[in-house]
Amino acid sequence: MQYTMEQYEASAQAIRSKLGGFVPKVAMVLGSGLGYLGDEVEQPIAVPYGDIPHFKASTAPGHKGRLVFGTLEGQNVAVMQGRMHHYEGYSYEDVSYAVRVLRLLGCDTLIVTNAAGCVNTQWEAGDLMLITDQIKLFSESPLRGENLPAFGERFPDVSHLYTLRLQELARQTAKEMGIPLREGVYFYCYGPQYETPAEVRAARILGGDAVGMSTAPEAIVAGHCGMEILGLTLLSNMAAGILDQPLTEKEVLDAAEAAREKFSGLVRACLKKL
Predict the structure, then answer these.
(1) Which CATH number fits domain 5-273: 1.10.287.1490, 3.40.50.1580, 3.40.50.360, 3.10.330.10?
(2) Model confidence at 62, in pLDDT bands (50, 70, 90)?
(3) What DSSP letter does each residue of 151-162 carry, written as one string?
């Protein structure tokens, strides 16, 4: 579906009417099992996706399906507790719709997180990875269709989609906290099936370090909107074919819970420095 500027504005106005003058500056899109950061927001205002015109429902396990506005580490934030995925039957415009609405509400920075399979065989499940770049080769762009100049230009440059300044901020913050932080490339796949061992080998050959089913569409749209982007990945499991064991959803959610303190601590510390 091709959304119009009027639809984006209607969604933004519906949310704005519930915020009492509050203006968010940092948007946070939280992935599988990571939505608990939204529960740590101070003076929260929760807006279910179902109450927002043109928003879609988030059906993935571990995703609450609401926006939480408030303060976290002194920053005015808008936290998406649950994202939409292409595998849920949504178009890429649907998947990234919320990013544009949050931009209209005042957000100029996006912190995007995910849980993903570890492709790099030198790393381990449970590690955190700073996203330095991404690969989304085999599907259409969320910018397909008529361009809306109010958001950005027709052919945006994505040479540094993930903001170099924020990468350095995360790098230094992790070092100060004593948290090992891998750095690598996020390889996007559609899902919902996990990748085959052959697909994981292909991702590795093409330069991917982690493989997952989210993040890339939202990052493209945020970049088009002129937002700064910080991406962080929890390597929740070794990708298919690396270990002789099946992949399960429970493994992903258990890994997110095990990394809760480390992950939320890093995100909050980065927020504080913005």
Answers:
(1) 3.40.50.1580
(2) low
(3) T--SS---TT-S
d(CA 269, CA 273): 7
C-alpha radius of gyration, the chain, whole number: 17
Please name which of 92, 84, 3 lies closest in space to residue 50, comparing C-alpha atoms: 84
Adjacent-strand bridge partners of 232: 113, 130
Give residue for tokens 């043109």.
54
- In the chain, where the domains are located: 5-273
pLDDT score of 119 = 95
Report the C-alpha gap between 162 and 227 in whole angstroms.
Answer: 10
Bond into 61 cis (ω within 30): no
Q: Let me know: does 230 contact 181? Beta carbons within 8 Å.
A: no
Q: Is the pTM of this model over 0.90?
A: yes
CB 63 within 8 A of CB 81: yes
